[in-house]
Structure formats: structure tokens, C-alpha cells
Amino acid sequence: MKSLIENVKNYIRDLEPYPPGKPLEELKREYGIEEAIKLASNENPFGPSPKAIEAIRDALGAIHRYPDGSGYYLKEKLKELWGVESQNIVLGNGSNEIIQFLIHAFSGPGTEVISSDPAFLVYRKMVQVFGGKNILVPLRENSHDLNAILSKVNEKTRLIFLDNPHNPTGSVIRTDEFNAFLEALPEHVLVCLDEAYGEFVREQDVPFGIDYFRKDPRVVFLRTFSKAYGLSGLRIGYGIMAKEIASILERVRQPFNVNALAQIGALNALEDREHLEHTLQATWEGLDWYFETLQDLGFKPLKSNTNFMLVDLGMDAKAIYEKMLRCGVIIRAMSAYGFPTSIRITVGTPAENQRCIEALKEVTGRR
């Protein structure tokens, strides 16, 4: 076995697996807590659209058939939503897979990919999987430092990932900053705007990929059905980009990469605007309530354009995380992201939000 493992590329052996949030089932097993709540993985606490659930149930009898490899009907709906052509759309097993496609197609040994530090951890892990070098640029005032990113661009640079809104701070890029950034960026560099939380943005003057990819083919943007649409368990997302870029990604995409139930669920979720609007409104109300409540308790929450909030507790976040587990509340300690005294809380239902705050008061002694 040792000789087999030694044949694995060093950059694969050195890769640390992505740390997922603790599942509810594990918490129940470990601590014997039945009434646990999970506010750690930025999921939709209201679940998916009832229309999506009904359509998925109706489709169960046909799961012995392969899915539509082209995703025709879902792409038709996305065409209508965004005003694009089907050739601009690439479907993925979560938007994570589109990230993988981009890195697989455009990066590799001897090339560089730039992302902020911290940012969504999958960027750096996928770069490592394909043997590239990830250049990490520290945030400036909890947001992407576009000037510093530009200073790191060279002839080896192939991709820049900008999660907008940013994970885990919830900040957004400003339009004038992004315009100046694109103008100064060399022609050989692709820019991916990861808009996983794009539906939740309330602030104005925010650049979205839909406004750029036609006039600048270097711009790709991603969306997911995991957050606002509540389909995390089905793993489906998509990217919109210039046809030439999409054609390249289709060459590295596995056949049938998006399963049939995911396609049906996503298609019907898009049909249910009422459910989406309820999710957004309840999330915004939850964010406002958390911000005010956490400030009143003496903590330092950040304003967020997502469905989560980063909170500086001023104390060891890992210790608070463990104590919260014993209260039956799963949050996320952000030490792995470089915030050792901060936690990330997903907005839940009003009852879940209240329980989270009560548990936090109990474990921190704040009143």
C-alpha cells in the first residue's frame, strides 16, 4: 500500500479535505439531543418550493432512466429568466462543479489562480487538485482588495475568483471598483463572479455578471439552487458565460452530471416566485433582527448581503461552537477562515433565530 500511495502526486496527498458543517444526525447521535437546529451551512430553513417537491415526487417513477444530458428544459427556463441563449449556460452538480470545470479547463501545473483570503475554500482546493498555484490576497476592510489582486496578476495568471457577495463576510464589490479592475486586467485572465448568494443582495451599486459577460467575454458568473431556492441536497447550479467559454467547459463536463430530480426540482423552483420572495423577505428580516440583537449583546456583527452573518464575539470561537452544540444549536466557527474569534450564523426561521440567541447568551454569559 505504501508504494501505491507514494505514486500519488504530492499536491494531492497534501490536500486537506473540505470541512463540512456538522450534520444534525451526528449532533443527535453524539450528544443525545433530539430537538437540534442547524444554522451552520447557509441552507434555506424554509425548504424548497412545494411545487418543486411535488414535481420531484411525480418524477420518482422514472429514475431508472438517465437524465437529460443537455438539461434542455432547465436551460430554456434559465434563458427566459436571464435573457441569454442556451449556449451561454453550463449546468453543474452544484455551482462547485462549475468552479471545478473552470480550473480544470484553464489552469493546471505552471499556472496561477488568484482568490481572496479568506474566501470560499473550494477555490484553493480545486486549484490544488489540478496542480496549479493559488495566490491568496488578504481582504481589505472585510472585502475583496481589487487593487491588491491586480498587483498579483502576471503571465502565469489564468483565473480570478471573486465571491460576490463574499463568504464569509457578506460584503459586496462596488460597480466603479469592478469597472476599473476589468479595465486594468490583462486580456488573458478569466474572472469568475461567484454569485451563490446573489438573490439576497439588497445594496445598490453592485456589479452582477449578467451586466458584463456579453461585453467582456472574460467575465463568467455562477448561480446556485442551494441557497435561496432550498435545493442543497440535490446539488445543482449553473454558470453563464460567453458561448466560446461554455463550449470549453462542456468538453470537460461528465455526461449526465446533473441528475434528473435536480433538474426537475430546479425547473419548478424557478416557477415559484412566491416561495422565493418569502425566503428573501424572511431572510432580510432575520438579518436585521440579528444585527440589532447581537450589537445589543456587545458583539460585532457585520452587515450582510447573504443569508448568514459573521459575528466577532471577542472570544475563542471554537470553544463557543462546542458549547453551542451542547445546547443543540449548530453554528460555524470561522477559525479555518482566519477569524479565530468569529462565528457564522445562518438565518433560520424566527423560532430558530430566537433559540440561537438564547443559547449564545447562555454560553457567553451576555445579557
TrEMBL record:
It is an enzyme of class 2 (transferase). Pathway: Amino-acid biosynthesis; L-histidine biosynthesis; L-histidine from 5-phospho-alpha-D-ribose 1-diphosphate: step 7/9. It comes from the Bacteria. One of its GO terms (molecular function) is pyridoxal phosphate binding. The modification N6-(pyridoxal phosphate)lysine is found at residue 227. One of its GO terms (biological process) is L-histidine biosynthetic process. Homodimer. This is Histidinol-phosphate aminotransferase. The lineage of its organism: Bacteria, Pseudomonadati, Thermodesulfobacteriota, Dissulfuribacteria, Dissulfuribacterales.
